[in-house]
Design a protein that fits this description.
heterodimer; A: about 280 residues; alpha/beta; six-stranded mixed sheet; three-stranded antiparallel sheet; globular; B: about 270 residues; mainly alpha; two-stranded antiparallel sheet; 2 strands; about 0% strand; flat
Chain lengths: ~280, ~270
């Protein structure tokens, strides 16, 4: 309840009742329920594509249920790191461990493109996410629940071709969630969306993460998104983790608030320092 | 479906079913002009018989049962040849699209054979098969093989690799990946191949029947030519056109049924 009590102190920002309740709920949840997410341990990870060494030794400990954002310039290796975690690329050296298991099957991924099957209806697309449990009798019910979670259960019988970009990404999110994953990887999932849709999707992602308590790894080029959503921001430069920043700002975080903006500013300064730009942020 | 507002206008009138009728306006107009030209002597009968004469000849043949028999024989040859050539072409297309080994082994050979005009092989075919059914079937199958092979191959190759990656991540087996991602993804291309193949099927059949047959539409046309029955010749040509159109329509219906998900087929 510490975080909730902070709000009652005189120098705290004025906050409305809904925020307060939200905050109290979150504090209660995090102290009561252990996360069902998987922890992630990476040691000495290296990856090269031909002559190009993209990752030069990554060491990382992510506790269960943490929301980690990975930012960096294009080509810094952040997507490669995500793809290695998801098992889409082969490791050149080093290890990735998920708690007890070395490679669980349930790392779900959400990409920048929705990657929906255009020839299957929305519900069927969500059922794809169940993996080998696709044939089980409750598959359809689970898919419907996942669609309801993202607010699209009225679209279950539609073809993907009639959905907007944001709606397609929400279906992709439902597909990633339907199997109750314990670790979810997001590879710039909101990059193709317009600014307003991006904000509402960020809220959706945060809500879903809080409700389902999986470990979340978000790769994004948008530092403000990273700071708004994550517990921890990793800045990758030249294939290594250059900075590891904990975001202690209590949730729900308000866009445009001073502490978010200053954190974002300092991270951007770090990112832009490697290019010769005057530090005028 | 229709409120009156949604009906297409045809020369200022709103008619039900006008949509299906509009496409026949031009052909009917041509027939009408042709009839008038023949009756006024503008087009002499020995150059081009009037539509009424053609229709009469058709009626006579229908009554004698000859027309129905010949159409049936031609249709059977075309369909069988299409199925044979199409299945083999489809199988090769899948194999070469999915397997590098298969592609390396067979594609070059197939491309070489493709560039031989199959109709030029007719004398050779007659030598090998005689003039019985297998000769015609072989020619039709050969003609149909290539469009279907090429378009199936292209369809399989051009399935979005991102979808395939997605399928793998979500635990699809190879069989599931094929059934749910690769084959449906290749279908639009395959249909293009089917429509091409249908055109080639008719062409091949007509030529083959003209040269080496004792039954069928092509044979009927050839006989008519021998006996100077120009009206029957014209009739045959018209029947080819109609049957070709029918085949294409069937293909389009199938396409619309299986590709209703495609953005191009969405009604907005």
């Amino acid at each position: 309840m510490q975080e909730a009590l902070r709000f009652l102190s005189p120098d705290a920002e004025p906050v409305d009742r809904a925020d307060f309740i939200e905050q109290a709920r979150l504090a209660w949840r995090s102290s009561e329920a252990p996360s069902r997410g998987l922890p992630l341990t990476i040691r000495g990870l290296r990856k090269s594509f031909g002559d190009n060494e993209v990752l030069r030794g990554i060491d990382l400990n992510i506790p269960a249920g943490q929301f980690v954002a990975i930012v960096g310039r294009s080509g810094c290796g952040k997507s490669t790191l995500l793809r290695l975690i998801a098992g889409l690329e082969s490791i050149d050296a080093g290890t990735i461990g998920f708690g007890q298991e070395t490679r669980p099957e349930d790392v779900r991924v959400m990409f920048q493109e929705p990657r929906l099957l255009p020839w299957a209806r929305v519900l069927s697309n969500v059922e794809v996410g169940l993996g080998r449990e696709r044939a089980s009798p409750d598959a359809q019910a689970r898919a419907e629940r996942a669609l309801a979670e993202v607010g699209l259960d009225d679209k279950r019988g539609q073809w993907p071709a009639v959905l907007s970009g944001g709606q397609k990404q929400r279906v992709a999110l439902a597909r990633a969630l339907v199997s109750d994953p314990r670790i979810l990887a997001f590879d710039e999932p909101l990059g193709a969306l317009d600014a307003l849709t991006r904000i509402s999707m960020q809220r959706l992602l945060e809500r879903v993460w809080r409700d389902q308590a999986f470990t979340a790894i978000l790769v994004t080029h948008d530092v403000s998104e990273a700071v708004a959503l994550a517990d921890r921001v990793l800045v990758i430069e030249n294939g290594r983790i250059a900075h590891d920043i904990h975001v202690d700002i209590p949730r729900p975080r308000r866009r445009g608030s001073a502490d978010l903006a200053s954190l974002e500013g300092s991270i951007l300064r770090e990112l832009l320092q490697s290019v010769d730009e005057p530090p005028d942020l | 479906m229709s409120s009156v507002e949604s009906l297409p206008r045809v020369r200022g009138l709103r008619l039900p079913h006008a949509d299906g009728l509009v496409q026949w306006i031009v052909p009917l107009a041509i027939v009408l002009i042709w009839q008038i030209a023949s009756e006024t002597g503008l087009v002499p009968a020995r150059v081009l018989p009037a539509p009424s004469d053609v229709a009469l000849a058709g009626w006579k043949l229908l009554l004698s049962g000859e027309l129905a028999r010949n159409i049936w024989v031609s249709f059977w040859r075309a369909a069988t040849g299409f199925v044979i050539g199409g299945s083999i072409g489809f199988a090769f297309g899948l194999a070469n699209g999915l397997s590098q080994l298969s592609n390396k082994l067979t594609d070059t050979t197939l491309q070489m054979v493709r560039n031989v005009p199959h109709l030029a092989l007719i004398p050779l075919v007659i030598l090998w098969f005689g003039i019985d059914e297998s000769a015609k079937l072989f020619l039709v199958a050969l003609g149909v093989f290539f469009p279907i092979y090429l378009n199936t191959l292209h369809g399989v190759r051009s399935v979005d690799p991102q979808l395939i990656e997605m399928g793998r991540i979500y635990g699809m087996s190879d069989g599931e990946l094929f059934r749910r991602v690769i084959f449906p993804g290749a279908l639009p291309s395959i249909f293009v191949g089917v429509r091409f193949a249908l055109g080639i099927m008719w062409l091949t059949l007509i030529v083959a029947e003209t040269i080496a047959a004792s039954s069928g539409l092509g044979y009927m046309a050839m006989q008519a030519r021998e006996f100077m029955q120009i009206d029957v010749v014209v009739l045959s040509i018209l029947i080819y056109a109609l049957l070709g159109k029918l085949a294409d329509s069937v293909a389009r219906v199938l396409e619309r049924l299986t590709l209703s998900w495609h953005p191009a087929f969405q009604k907005h």
